[in-house]
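Lab notebook, bench 4. Still working through the backlog of constructs that have no structural model yet. Next entry is a single chain of 125 residues. Request: give me the structure tokens for it.
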Amino acid sequence: MYAMAAKPLLVDTNVLIHHWNGDKRTTPLLDGAIIHVSFITEIEILGYHGYTAHERAKVVTDMAAIHIMDMDAGIKSTAIDLCSRHRLKLADSIIAATAIRLGIALLTEDKHFRKLKNKLELVLI
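Model written out:
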């Protein structure tokens, strides 16, 4: 039997939050995946003010194992296009543009990304 290659995924903020809150739907999707997030997700996760000290330490540790993708000219250009053509909010357009530019699936709970089905692979929970 051959081992399956780990699949890269761009994970939306809501999926990480649900996962850390014990949502069992996320575990099989994240297990074995190479997890990427947009810098937007990093800001949303680490910028949250309501963590206890223990929760913040766990989140920081978990985020250290995730590939964080910064903005580049290609992501910026794609995000501008998504904002103007598909009326996405700025944060969502950057997250979707990151998945498109990396050529990897976007794992999200946000159904409004369905309008981009011709532009990116979408995995909805």
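Notes after review: The mean pLDDT is 93. Strands lie at 8-11, 34-38, 67-69, 105-108, 122-124. Flag for follow-up if needed.
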